[in-house]
Design brief:
alpha/beta, globular, about 30% helix, about 15% strand, TIM Barrel, 16 strands, two-stranded parallel ribbon
Length: about 450
């Protein structure tokens, strides 16, 4: 995200590899737990429920009941309930993570006498809907509001990522153009904390069907350049970096990055950090609930996703054959094999490959992590879904997703996107229910979810 794990290796070496942040590849094929044949073959129609965007709405029991019934009646099979937004606060009674009782845009305080997640599980199961939770992993604050884990808890302030920008090394909390206060994924204490939160959550809700990890990534190509990351990387390569960070990359007079001696190895190491965390999380949560569906949610733009340190492809796919940024060993950081459910953000207005030539790159708005402005075929819903399938290689069930807000007032384009996701993957994920409610696009959603695909 690699060295083969073996019982013949000395325990001391294994521990040293973990401490050093090196990569270790579990000796396993696709995990069998967490899904049945019926779950795997059924077309999933999934709707996301964002924590903060829906905070005021779902502090009411009757709203939970009403919308669970409403989405069921138009064909939704699965809910993904966000319970840990980017602030690092949670929407359930945790004894580890801070609990969110209010949100900036809502006057209503959350009533702690009842459990929102418990209610979603109960009402969803009554109607045969599977209920998953979503948690933002390596994010610990909201920069727009100076709120969240790293703002409220001084002993965790050093967990935030340090970016290498043209103006120098800068903590992310000082970058107010970014809303997520991203953490440094390589820090062992950060990983330990996030794993403890995940384990507590899964233990608290044994009836939960699945969990979807979000933001299991670096902030971007500029992260993380802390001294801790430098030391972990040096342990990984077995020598000191003479000129850090310039030996990773440097900036020219125009502020453009120039790769240094260790650039590709650095990308490989970062991806390994994420790979290893995904396997740790999988194993820890399956130990608590073997039937839990273990999922991940990422962007679909694989050719630039290395910028956030993530390789969600299969280990059988070798990106070094297609992309100059990948080392031959980069393929070993792929983690598709560990997933029971893979949600991809195919977040583009253009649905069909042929629409790519219509894109005005001077006006296109691509603000998601790792995105660039180009006319590549994979900047369409169809093209990105094809690319995901190519690199995942059927090692994980893929559910292509749409971002409702991108379609503005064009309901037909939205419907076309939904149908394309269904055609190219094992179902569709809709982000987010708040946009369907605000636009009153229930009929369009129902149409896109249920129209016959044979004519497509």
């Amino acid at each position: 995200m690699l060295l083969q794990r073996s019982m013949l290796k000395p325990l001391i070496l294994a521990v040293a590899l973990v401490i050093a942040g090196c990569k270790s590849e579990p000796n396993r094929e696709k995990p069998a737990e967490g899904k049945t044949t019926e779950q795997s073959s059924k077309e999933k129609k999934i709707v996301y429920i964002d924590a903060t965007a829906n905070f005021g709405r779902f502090t009411h029991k009757d709203s939970v009941d009403y919308y669970v019934r409403k989405v069921h009646d138009i064909g939704i099979t699965d809910l993904v309930v966000d319970v840990k937004p980017i602030t690092g606060e949670v929407l359930y009674p945790s004894k580890i993570a801070p609990v969110m009782t209010t949100w900036e845009k809502d006057d209503r305080e959350k009533d702690s006498s009842w459990d929102m997640l418990e209610r979603f599980i109960e009402k969803g199961h009554e109607l045969g809907i599977q209920v998953h939770v979503s948690t933002n992993i390596f994010s610990g604050g909201h920069n727009y509001f100076d709120r969240g884990l790293i703002y409220a808890e001084p002993d965790k302030k050093h967990w935030q990522t340090t970016s290498y920008l043209p103006e120098g090394l800068t903590p992310i909390s000082a970058q107010k153009n970014k809303f997520s206060t991203m953490l440094n994924p390589a820090l062992p204490e950060v990983q330990d904390y996030e794993l403890s939160v995940l384990k507590e959550l899964v233990s608290m809700y044994p009836e939960l069907d699945g969990i979807v990890l979000d933001r299991v990534r670096y902030d971007g190509i500029t992260a993380d350049f802390s001294d801790a990351s430098r030391k972990l990387f040096e342990d990984y390569i077995g020598e000191q970096v003479a000129d850090f960070p310039a030996d990773i990359y440097a900036y020219d007079a125009q502020g453009r990055r120039t790769p240094g001696t260790w650039y590709k190895k650095w990308l490989e190491w970062r991806s390994g950090v994420i790979h290893d965390f995904m396997y740790k999380a999988h194993d820890a949560l399956k130990a608590i609930n073997p039937g839990l569906i273990f999922g991940d949610y990422t962007g679909s733009w694989y050719p630039t996703y290395y910028e956030v340190g993530v390789n969600w492809a299969s280990k059988d796919y070798d990106p070094s054959e297609d992309y100059e940024w990948a080392t031959p060993a980069y393929k070993n950081t792929g983690y598709a094999e560990v997933l029971d459910m893979f949600l991809t953000g195919n977040y583009f207005y253009e649905v069909y490959r042929k629409e790519v030539e219509q894109i005005d790159t001077t006006k296109v708005n691509r603000s998601e992590a790792g995105q660039s402005k180009s006319k590549a075929y994979w900047y369409t819903v169809e093209g990105s879904a094809d690319l995901v399938n190519k690199v995942v290689m059927d090692k994980a069930p893929v559910y292509a997703g749409v971002y409702v807000e991108q379609y503005k007032d064009n309901e037909e384009q939205f419907v076309a996107a939904l149908k394309m996701c269904r055609k190219k993957s094992k179902g569709v994920m809709i982000f987010d229910i708040v946009h369907i409610i605000d636009k009153n696009w229930w009929k369009a959603l129902e149409k896109g979810l249920n129209e016959d695909l044979k004519a497509e």
